[in-house]
Design goal:
single chain, Immunoglobulin-like, 321 residues, Transglutaminase-like, 15 strands, globular, Papain-like_cys_pep_sf, Transglutaminase family protein
Length: 321
């Protein structure tokens, strides 16, 4: 394991006013079929959701060819998904998600972030913590704890270590010890494969982080969303630095850990940072299987293979007080 990792800055609450950032978000998922198919069922998790740090100003989904059915559903965790049915022969499918969101700065109370991480375990939550949060302490379809996970947890979650330090260390360690490699894994790659190869993408790194946090007895969830892809024309981006983020060309993923007295604290090992105004949240769940950007069933002739392309734009359009 890595030693003497450079620190990951944590923004603590200093009561200073920071402007929110408005974004225009466009997510296009496009399939081209080698042979026309006759029916397409799909469910997309592409609608940004309201959070303590994010307001959804507008959102719409459009589909080409025109769907026979287009409806929305809210799941157990409050995520909104869009169901679509294209019930005619077609040789392509395009799903456009367009939104306007306003993202505020995240500041965390120094008092709670300096408490020992053990204070974040369920036995210390108190009676006001939502019961659904216990789901995020348990194993899930894609995330199990084990030897390699427990080894990382023992390095990061040292007894009595402050919560903020633990989360910063976890972020830096995964970023340093794992290599971002878009060709190393697929959406079906297991956690064990990622831990063995030490290569992967944002989805894999989020799974590793969630597994490690749960191994330490904490509640951790998988978060999907987007990253800022361009500057506004006036150069205003709140307090965040310039530079393209890894994973900004498509859907992104990170993890969130429950800290009593603070709420959910999000970290992004892929970019070695606490989540800030450059991130737009769409959904969260136990792991990737709960909130894939788009999944479905296609009915067509033998040999109806497809080519997938994804494009994401998250462009700052203005700032507001």
């Amino acid at each position: 394991m890595s030693e003497q990792l450079p620190p990951v800055p944590l923004r603590l609450d200093d009561h200073s006013a920071v402007k929110a950032v408005d974004y225009s978000v466009h997510h296009l998922t496009s399939y081209t079929y080698a042979k026309p198919v006759s029916r397409n069922y799909g469910r997309a998790h592409v609608e940004p959701r309201a959070t303590p740090y994010q307001r959804v100003l507008s959102h719409e989904v459009s589909v080409d060819p025109a769907p026979a059915r287009l409806s929305t559903h809210t799941d157990f965790y409050g995520n909104s998904s869009t169901y679509l049915l294209v019930d005619e022969h077609h040789d392509h499918l395009e799903v456009h998600s367009r939104a306007r969101v306003s993202v505020a700065e995240r500041r965390y109370p120094s008092e709670t972030m300096s408490r020992p991480f053990e204070s974040c375990r369920p036995e210390n939550w108190g009676p006001l913590m939502p019961a659904a949060s216990i789901d995020f302490t348990q194993p899930s379809p894609r995330i199990r704890t084990g030897g390699a996970v427990e080894e990382i947890a023992s390095e990061v979650f040292v007894p009595e270590r402050p919560t903020g330090e633990c989360l910063a260390h976890l972020t830096a360690l995964i970023h340093t010890d794992f290599t971002y490699d878009s060709g190393a894994t697929t959406v079906t790659s297991t956690l064990e494969e990622v831990l063995s190869a030490r290569h992967g993408v944002c989805q894999d790194f989020a799974h590793v982080g969630v597994a490690v946090a749960r191994s330490a007895g904490l509640a951790a969830r998988y978060v999907s969303g987007y990253l800022r892809t361009a500057r506004s024309t006036d150069g205003a981006l709140g307090t965040q630095p310039d530079g393209e983020m890894v994973g900004s060309a498509a859907s992104h993923a990170w993890l969130s850990v429950l800290v009593p007295g603070t709420g959910w604290v999000d970290i992004d090992p892929t970019n070695r940072t606490f989540v800030d105004q450059r991130f737009v949240t769409t959904a969260w769940g136990r792991d990737y299987t709960d909130v894939p950007p788009l999944k479905g069933i296609v009915v067509g002739p033998p040999g109806a293979t497809s080519t997938l392309s994804v494009a994401v734009g998250v462009v700052p359009v203005s700032t507001q007080g």
